[in-house]
Design brief:
The chain is of the alpha+beta class. Helices cover 29% and strands 24% of the residues. It folds into two domains: 188 residues, Fructose-1,6-Bisphosphatase, subunit A, domain 1 (Fructose-1,6-Bisphosphatase, Chain A, domain 1); 130 residues, 3-Layer(aba) Sandwich (D-Maltodextrin-Binding Protein, domain 2), CATH 3.40.190.80. The longest helix is centred in the N-terminal third of the chain and has 23 residues. The termini are far apart. Bound molecules: 1,6-di-O-phosphono-beta-D-fructofuranose and magnesium ion (MG) (2 copies). The site of one magnesium ion (MG) has 6 residues, from strand 5.
């Protein structure tokens, strides 16, 4: 009989056997996973749990909040604030950082999250998720400020997401490849179901919101136009398209079978670099994709090399199968 490896055991091995993560980081990741289990339960109850619909409030980015956006945010904060691993947290749903109250022990890590990704899919029962990223608080100064969070994604010490779909799957990197864990609801634990996740270098599948086509920049238009020409066009092959409108679900597909995902800058709001959030969405997903052998750029630069200038910074995103990301990035250099 094969032994099932739980997330806890996997993390202990990463800590003890491989020396990859300190014990505080291991404990922090276990708490995040526990919070995701709680969110998964709320998601599963749906209309029975009264968790669908809007909350009647807006977040700092002017987006209407769904009840689950707020519930997921609270679950993550309540689970993490007292554990002693964290100095502060930042979330897509909060105006500014949440410093761990001084009645609790203070830790050395910073946790960032998109508590509920794919909010437009909650009420229609389509996959949604939680995306998280962990940074280390810069050493030296006492206390913690927003500036401590403004580190390039290359400095992440852990990143992952949990997708609440037909299965609840937690996907994680601590810088040693990507591992996937499926929630065993009977046991109440995440079980390792795939290690050494690899994204194929080539693909015939792209993910982009095609309704924005008329607003895109020339390099993105060229790339998609060439894909659409199929086997008789310059690419010499047919492409398929998928767009779930939950980044977690689109990225999960790409980690599973390859593909390219793009949410590029567009002309509707020319001063906004993109729709997606650098710190809560692009950085953790880019690191996961790179760790699985893929690539992630904003069209001009590796996403993980961008130094954020503000907490809720936006970014243009192109990630997935390496050869396709390199191709669309090269079009930006020439057009
Ligand atoms: O509705 P659009 O414009 O296609 O945008 C979809 C994108 O927006 C997002 O939903 C943003 O995430 P939130 O639900 O966390 O705001 C991404 O997950 C997704 O890729
Ligand atoms: Mg999101
Ligand atoms: Mg969100």
């Amino acid at each position: 009989m094969s032994t099932k490896i739980s997330l806890t055991r996997y993390l202990v091995e990463q800590q003890r056997v491989d020396g990859l993560i300190p014990s505080q980081l291991r404990l922090l990741l276990e708490v995040v996973a526990r919070a995701c289990k709680g969110i998964s339960q709320a998601v599963n109850k749906g209309a029975l749990g009264g968790v669908l619909g809007t909350a009647g409030t807006e977040n700092v980015q002017g987006e209407v909040q769904k009840k689950l956006d707020i519930i997921a945010n609270e679950v993550l904060i309540e689970a993490n604030e007292w554990g002693g691993h964290l100095a502060a947290m930042a979330s897509e749903e909060m105006d500014t950082i949440y410093v761990v109250p001084n009645r609790y022990p203070q830790g050395e890590y910073l946790l960032l999250f998109d508590p509920l990704d794919g909010s437009s899919n909650i009420d229609v029962n389509v996959s949604i998720g939680t995306i998280f990223s962990v940074l280390k608080k810069p050493e030296g100064l006492a206390g913690v400020t927003e500036a401590d969070f403004l580190q390039p994604g290359a400095r992440q010490v852990a990143a992952g997401y949990c997708v609440y779909g037909p299965q609840t799957t937690l996907v994680l990197t601590v810088g040693d490849g990507v591992a996937m864990f499926t929630l065993d609801r009977e046991q109440g634990s995440f079980v390792l179901t795939q290690e050494n996740v690899r994204i194929p270098q080539d693909t015939q599948e792209f993910a982009i919101n095609m309704s924005n086509m008329r607003h895109w920049d020339a390099p993105v238009k060229r790339y998609i136009d060439e894909c659409l020409q199929g086997v008789t066009g310059p690419r010499g092959k047919d492409f398929n398209m998928r767009w779930i409108a939950s980044m977690v679900a689109d990225v999960h597909r790409i980690l599973t079978r390859g593909g390219i995902f793009m949410y590029p800058w567009d002309q509707r709001e020319p001063n906004k670099p993109g729709k997606l959030r650098l710190m809560y969405e692009a950085n953790p997903m880019s690191w996961l994709v790179e760790q699985a052998g893929g690539a992630a750029t904003n069209g001009r630069q590796r996403i993980l090399d961008i130094t954020p200038t503000k907490l809720h910074e936006r970014v243009s995103v192109m990630l997935g199968s390496r050869n396709e990301v390199q191709r669309v990035t090269s079009y930006h250099a020439t057009l």
